[in-house]
Amino acid sequence: MDSDKRIFVAGHRGMVGSAIVRELERRGYGNILTRSRDELDLLDQRVVRAFLESNEIDEVYLAAARVGGIHANNTYPADFIYQNLMIEANIIHAAHESGVDRLLFLGSSCIYPKHADQPMREDALLTGTLEPTNEPYAIAKIAGIKLCESYNRQHGRDYRSVMPTNLYGPNDNFHPENSHVIPALIRRFHEAAESNADEVGVWGSGKPMREFLHVDDMAAASVHVMELDGETYRAHTDPMLSHINVGTGVDCTIRELAETVAKVTGFKGRLTWDTTKPDGTPRKLMDVSRLRALGWEASIGLEEGLRDAYQWFLENRGNIRS
C-alpha cells in the first residue's frame, strides 16, 4: 500500500463514508480528502470536475448517495433516481477525465430481481423484475455498476463496484419515517422502553428474511477490495460482470431482528405487526463466495453489531434529527 496516495471519500459524513474514513485511517492512510455538501455539490458536474482536477486525486471511494427505507423510497422516487444518477455520473466521469485510475463504487443489494434465486449471485443482475418499492434507486445503482464497467472497457480504467447487503451502525439515519429497518427499530424500541410502553408496532408481517452487515465490516471489505492488485481482482470478476457482493452470508426474519433489537434496548413489552404495510422482497441473502475467495469475511455478529449501533444512538441522540 502507498500510505501517501491522495484518496477522496465522497459522502464522508454518511454512515458508509465515515466508516471508510475510519478504516483508511486505521490502516495508516494519511492523505484523505473529504468535502461537505456545502463545500462540494456532487450534483453539479462542473464543480465536481474542477475539484478532482485541481486536487490530483489518486483514488476515489464513491460512498455518496441518497438513501432511505421503504417509506422514503415510495415517497421520493424522483429524488432517489435523479440524485443518485447525477452523483455517480458526475464523479465517475470527472474521475476519468482527471486521470483517476482507481475508483470504488458502492451499490446496494436491491439491484437484484425481487424473486432472484437465493442466495443472490452476482450474475443474477438484470435477470428479472426489480422490487417496485425501490426500483428507481435500484436502477440508479445498476447504472453506476455499468458506468464503471464501461469506463474500464473503453478507457482501460480500474473502476470497481461492491454491492453491500443491508447496512447499519454508527452515523446511521434514525429518522422515524425515512430510515432503514434497524435504526427505525432501535429508535422505536428505545422510546418505548423509556416510556414503559406495553407494545411496539412493527411494519409488515415479520416473515421476510434479511441479511444485515455492520458498517465497519463494510468499510473493511471496501478497502480490502480496493487494495487488491489488478490481476487478482480481474481473476475473480469479468469485464461484463465486475461487481462483488459484500455481506455475511447469513440472514434472519424481520421478526427475529425485532426481537433482538428489543433485547438490546431493554424493551419488555409485546410486538404487534401491521400487515397493511408492505413487506418488500420476501428474501434477500447475498452469495458472498466471490468475496471470500478474495480473502475477506465479515467478523461482527448481529447482536454485537446492534449493541454497538444502539450505544452510538445513545451517545448521539441529542443531535439526531427528529
Automatic annotation (TrEMBL):
Organism name: Natronospira bacteriovora
InterPro entries hit by this protein: Epimerase_deHydtase, GDP_fucose/colitose_synth, NAD(P)-bd_dom_sf
Highest taxon above the source species: Bacteria
Protein name: GDP-L-fucose synthase
Residue numbers binding NADP(+): 11-17, 106-109, 141, 164-167, 180
Keyword Nuclease (UniProt): no
Gene3D superfamilies membership: NAD(P)-binding Rossmann-like Domain, UDP-galactose 4-epimerase, domain 1
Domain NAD-dependent epimerase/dehydratase stretches: 7-228
Top EC class for this record: oxidoreductase
Site label Important for catalytic activity, positions: 108, 110
Gene: fcl
Functional description taken from the UniProt entry: Catalyzes the two-step NADP-dependent conversion of GDP-4-dehydro-6-deoxy-D-mannose to GDP-fucose, involving an epimerase and a reductase reaction.
One Pfam family hit: Epimerase
Key words of the record: Isomerase, Multifunctional enzyme, NADP, Oxidoreductase
Active site: 137
Catalytic activity line of the entry: GDP-beta-L-fucose + NADP(+) = GDP-4-dehydro-alpha-D-rhamnose + NADPH + H(+)
Pathway: Nucleotide-sugar biosynthesis; GDP-L-fucose biosynthesis via de novo pathway; GDP-L-fucose from GDP-alpha-D-mannose: step 2/2
